[in-house]
Amino acid sequence: MTIDDLSEPGEECGVFGVYAPGQQASQLTYFGLFALQHRGQESAGMAVSNGETTMISKDMGLVTQVFDEQTLAALDGHLAIGHTRYSTTGSTVWNNAQPTYRQVGESAVALAHNGNLTNTLQLAEDLQLANVTDSELMLEAISREVDSTRSDGNGLAHAVLKSAPMFEGAFSLTIMDQGNLVALRDSHGFRPLCLGSLGDNGWVVASETAALDILGAEFIREIEPGEMIVINASGLKSYRPFTTTPDPKLCVFEFVYFARPDSHLLGRNIHASRQEMGRLLATESPVEADVVVPVPESGIPAAQGFAEVSRIHYADGLIKNRYVGRTFIEPSQMLRDRGIRMKLNPIPATLNGQRVVLVDDSIVRGSTTRQLVTMVREAGAAEIHLRISSPPYRWPCFYGMDTSDRSRLLAAERSVDEIREFLEVDSLAYLSIDGLMAAAGGGSFCNACLTGEYPTDVSAEAGKFVLEIS
Ligand code: SF4
Fold first, then answer.
1. What is the set of domains in the chain, with CATH numbers?
2. Is 190 in the pocket of ligand 1 (CB under 6 A)?
3. Which end of the chain is more exposed for a tag (fewer CB within 10 A), N or C?
4. Of 31, 165, 51, nearest to 106 (Cα)?
């Protein structure tokens, strides 16, 4: 998906939380968020408490742009949550940066969310609120249940236990007040969330294990679908706030694209899974060619796997500008017309006169894939055989990856051969659903964007979507 990423709509955030008595939680959160930067580059933020006061700091931009040593030093305390956000262009506003925050009597409640609720309209109606995000609605629901006069300090835990059954859809949350860190995962576990230990120094929760590694925290386990964890001065406790039986449906796109290659999910290394996708793709859809070329960087592990099984030479034929990230400077029309060249540049010496197998992890809209193919052709490729290490992306996601309306998905209404014609490649093949599931370890996953089989009732969200495009 690298080839589409700057033009892609999408929303996939990173959440973090730490309870570390005697430590500077803001520093730990900074490094945790730094490790989760790939999950959101739009804004970054953290809430930090020293047990009495809570401070919030958040802004648009990358973690390194939002925080410096001075800001972190001012955020004093041992308890913190953090968030990195990637949102659609329309909602790129400071107000949507997280954590969201509410003062409830003596309690200061902050919340960070990865995912999307599927009952946002209903919840807004129940709470009689308008023009607020699903994350703000959850914070509001929780805040209304907080009894800040409780003497046992468990007001937040009870509030989350009481309000959680109102939420439907995808939510991996970190929530805090002055004394408690709460982590909550919906009963399908669409979005990842894991628990790590700092030994005698406390606990960490994070979207991905890579955020534990950077802190030297020991991975303890994934927070289970439908589980709520409360960490405070008394230790760590686990609760089950939902009456429904957990039905694990981790997003399979975490394996395809979202998660960092060095993270582990369900006990599997993401990089190894992506290599396996490439191996299976080569077995399912072999082709005679001279060179296997990845679309960097997301296509690299699958291309390695493809080359290994096909015994076709692997070579770098495209170089990515590693510093392309998000920019707040609008490129001029002249530069925009250069499109893909802002991100990728071909190496003619690798491509010229060669039958090229071009490997990427996914195609969502396909407009830049077409530009990429033209670029490879202009660099002299004799043939281009495009291999995609996931099945065609045909359906919108309602669980946190905002793929906008279905009509913009390249594969929504096209056969593979029609897509091949559109992209002007000599051959095109996608990995099968069975191949993808096997490479991800054969668990129970959400794959609704590939199959149209949604694990939850999304009629309300789909209905809203129909209204939006009409
Ligand atoms: S619909 Fe697709 S992107 Fe969305 S959660 Fe399911 S697998 Fe992930």
1. 2-248 (3.60.20.10), 269-469 (3.40.50.2020)
2. yes
3. C
4. 51
Q: How far is CA 229 from CA 24, 138, 154, 238, 241, in A?
A: 22, 17, 13, 5, 10
As a whole number of angstroms, the distance between CA 401 and CA 449 comes to 10
Q: Facing residues of 403 across strands?
A: none
With 0.90 as the threshold, say if the pTM is over it: yes
13 carries an active-site annotation = yes
Dist. CA 251 → ligand 1 center (Å): 5
What letter would DSSP give residue 444? Answer: -
Would you give the DSSP letter of residue 223?
P
**CA separation for the pair 402, 96 (Å, rounded):** 15
The span from the CA of 466 to the CA of 22, in Å, is 52
Give the helix ranges, DSSP H, for 175-285. 210-213, 253, 270-284
Say which residues have a Cβ less than 8 Å from residue 17's Cβ, sequence separation at least 6: 80, 81, 82, 112, 174, 176, 181, 183, 204, 205, 206
Q: Is 399 in the pocket of ligand 1 (CB under 6 A)?
A: yes
Q: Which atom of ligand 1 is nearest to the CA of 253?
A: 8
Shortest-distance Cα residue to atom 2 of ligand 1: 449
State how far the Cα of 230 lies from the Cα of 376, in Å rounded to an integer: 53
Phi, psi of 248 (to 5 degrees): -55, 125
In Å, how far from its chain's centre is CA 73? 29
Instruction: Indicate whether residue 454 lines ligand 1 (CB < 6 A).
Output: no
In ligand 1, the atom with minimum distance to the C-alpha of 447 is 7
Residues of the chain by 3-state class (helix, strand, coil), percent to 5: 35, 25, 40
Mean pLDDT, range 396-416, rounded to an integer: 85
Return all residues near 404 (Cβ < 8 A) that are at least 6 apart: 9, 88, 396
**67-94 pLDDT tens trace:** 999 999 999 999 999 999 986 434 556 7
Residues 318-334, buried b or exposed e (16+ Cβ, 10 A)? bebeeeeeeeeeeeeee
Q: Which of 12, 117, 449 to mutate to test the pocket of ligand 1 (most atoms within 8 A of CB)?
A: 449
Point out which residues pair with 14 in neighbouring strands: 84
User: For residue 277, which amino acid is it?
Assistant: M
**Which atom from ligand 1 is nearest to the alpha carbon of 190?**
5
